[in-house]
Amino acid sequence: MIDYSVVIPTTGRDSLWRLLAALDAAVGPPPREILVVDDRPGGEELRLPPSIRLLRSGGRGPAAARNTGWRQAGGEWIAFLDDDVITDADWPARLAGDLTGLDDLVGASEAEIVVPLPADRRPTDDERGTAGLARARWITADMAYRRSALAAVGGFDERFPRAYREDADLAMRVRLAGYEIVRGDRATTHPVRRASLLASVRAQRGNADDVLMRRTHGARWRERIGEGPGRLRLHVLTIGAAALGGLFAVTGRRRAAAGCAAIWAALTGEFAARRIGPGPRTAAEVGRMLVTSVLIPPAACLHRLRGEIRHRRRHSGGPLHGSSGGPLDAYSGGPLDGSGGGPLHGSGGGPLNAYSGRPPHGHSGGPREAHRGRSRPPQALLFDRDDTLIGDVPGLTDPAGVHPMPGAVEALRMSREAGIRVGVVSNQAGVAGGLISADQLAEVNSRVEALLGPFQTWQVCVHGPQDGCDCRKPAPGMVYRAAAALGVDVEGCVVIGDTGADVAAAAAAGARGILVPTARTRRAEIAKARAEAAVAEDIVAAVALALAGVR
Fold it and tell me: Catalytic residue among 386, 387, 498, 502, which?
């Protein structure tokens, strides 16, 4: 039997009672409880059936309301429903089917969202906006999260004040924590609500939330949630043309003012035509599109500026901890001073010099638990080479075979822009096994340096598994040596790699570890890393997580 609770945030709309009646009459295993969270700032208590548990969140927005609900719920799974959706008669049975047998690594199940549109005419702009929910990823109109996954990331980020982006932000953080999100077979209907004349203008408030998304998840956040680049740059150009035109007009430069006016008119006209074309093209709709197409660009730019001001400050936490902050806050340390060394020789000594495995002076090592729960940017990021920075080609001897992994260039750029030292720690047992010579290894590593460098230190173990050295991961030798070469505390290092050995080497040295699984990573390694370190879906996400401070 699936153990689940249902959480419904509401502002008291009439549709809530329709939803509660549908759930009461539905077929399938009943929930442990249904919690309705009243997010009105005040007012009389909602009159609900006795079986419904009523909570209040004080008008702080849907993110806070959902947090209030799931933290009071007792189910293993928390099924979030919006108060205006329509569930099918067998919704509980379909939900149970979606959740039954899921692997422990699955943190959430999303439903298919169906938005009914008029069959006898083209949809209006507002109707098309609601229809976009059917294509959106991870919306909480109907989304079931494992309670442990919510607890692992701290729930919804309450800095998102509206029903906008808070669901995508949560899903991205859950995936950063190493959980999978799967699509279920259940379907839920989301009706189109009647919208006012200026609803699309008021919706531009979401531009402020987009700033928080960028600061939390990096510049590629739209790509990660499956969205296009947006139109803000064109809005900025539109407002710029209007502002310059006004300035030129005031100063008597009529020709320049006319040119700017023409640019404004062209951009505004193109925007309006893009919105009018797919719609019903009635007089009322066309008039509304013309008016709002003039108003949207300044509103979008104003709210974007407001978001930049609001979220300009550095936040103390990270993407796994709800409202604590974001992973792209810049590290405040000094410039990258490097430590010399080459792509094979590390920071001193030849390619076959074994490190003793003892911590350098001032580094005590210690278990991973010594710093669990800490949240601070790292002093250095140490990357595994094969299947982390470049594709893993067994016995790679030809530098032409070096190909960066997807996201490696972006991840390293993020690291360097944040002022973080970067290095490589790599097992290369092929030298000991005679598959590759030391010179060939140096040539390959030089190619990696040329494509992805500069790296401030290279630490390479050329021993085999049976040699008993202290440098081959999962032993901590190379982590100690890299920290010493970079002049940082080993506790300030984060090791990023694709195997359990990378995470184990970090833990043995007292550093932090982040696993970036590939198809060859064992599931047991993923589960262990998720419990004892951190797991990221790709190298860019790993760096974002590291820059925030691994919990």
Answer: 386
Q: How far is CA 242 from CA 264, 266, 267, in A?
A: 6, 11, 11
**Whether the Cβ atoms of residue 456 and residue 335 lie closer than 8 Å to each other:** no
- Candidates 78, 228, 94; CA nearest to 153 is 78
Residues forming a β-bridge with 459? 425
Q: How far is 46 from 378, CA to CA, in rounded Å?
A: 49
Over residues 30-72, the pLDDT tens digits come to 999 999 999 999 888 999 999 999 999 999 999 999 999 999 9
Sequence-distant (6+) residues with CB within 8 A of 546 are 327, 377, 378, 381, 494, 496, 512, 514
With H, G, I as helix, E, B as strand and everything else as coil, classify residue 236: helix
Check residue 62 and give its pLDDT.
95
pLDDT, tens digit (0-9, with 9 covering 90-100), for 119-140: 999 999 999 989 988 888 899 9
What is the phi/psi pair of residue 107, to 5°? Answer: -100, -15
Distance between CA atoms of residues 303 and 309, nearest Å: 10
Nearest to 257 by CA among 244, 273, 274: 244
Distance CA 468, CA 466 (A): 6
Question: Residues, the chain, total?
Answer: 551
Active-site annotation holder among 384, 387, 498, 538: 384
Vertex 185: Cα angle to 33 and 536 (nearest 5): 85
Is 14 labeled as catalytic in the residue annotation?
no
Amino acid letter at 440? Q
